[in-house]
Amino acid sequence: MANSFSGADMSLRTDKAVQRGPALQFTVDDQLVDAFSGESVAAALFAVGRRELRQSPRDSAPRGMFCMMGSCQECLVWVGQRQVPACQVPVAAGLAVQTLSFRRQHLD
Ligand code: FES
């Protein structure tokens, strides 16, 4: 499995005055993502440089995190059989997340 969201890509996280939970990995669209316990899926993806989570159904414009508090629904992803805002889902080891575009291409 390719791992394109890890290692040096994690440079957007600050290292000063932050106590992190244990390091873990989860997957987004079958790609491993490095994260830390306590982060949301959206925060972990933002930190590794992934900004686009879906495309607008109206004009196919890229859409991603906006409010980071569960209000805008711009960050919707699939976790299991539920569509949820990525900013409201805590990362967990082995968590499998799928973007709407990926799921539409591979599962629908
Ligand atoms: S960024 Fe607005 S609901 Fe997640």
Show the helix and strand layout:
Blueprint: E1 23-28, E2 31-36, H1 41-47, E3 52-55, E4 62-64, E5 76-79, E6 82-85, E7 96-99, H2 100-106
Parallel strand pairs: 1-7
Antiparallel strand pairs: 1-2, 3-4, 5-6, 5-7
Task: Tell me what you see in this structure.
The chain has about 110 residues and is α+β, with helices and mostly antiparallel strands. It has one domain (about 20-105): 2Fe-2S iron-sulphur cluster binding domain, sarcosine oxidase, alpha subunit, N-terminal domain (Ubiquitin-like (UB roll)). The chain contains two helices and seven strands. It has helices spanning about 40-45, 100-105, and strands spanning about 25-30, 30-35, 50-55, 60-65, 75-80, 80-85, 95-100. The strands form two sheets. The chain has a five-stranded mixed β-sheet with strand order 2-1-7-5-6. Strands 3-4 form a two-stranded antiparallel sheet. A hairpin with a 2-residue loop joins strand 5 (about 75-80) and strand 6. The longest helix is centred in the middle third of the chain and has 7 residues, at about 40-45. The chain is globular. The mean pLDDT is about 90. The site of FE2/S2 (inorganic) cluster has 13 residues, from loops.
Mean pLDDT: 88
Instruction: Give the strand order of the largest sheet, numbering strands 1, 2, ... along the chain.
Output: 2-1-7-5-6
Report helical residue fraction.
10-25%
Radius of gyration: 13 Å
Number of helices: 2
CATH classification class: Alpha Beta
Please name the fourth-level CATH homologous superfamily: 2Fe-2S iron-sulphur cluster binding domain, sarcosine oxidase, alpha subunit, N-terminal domain
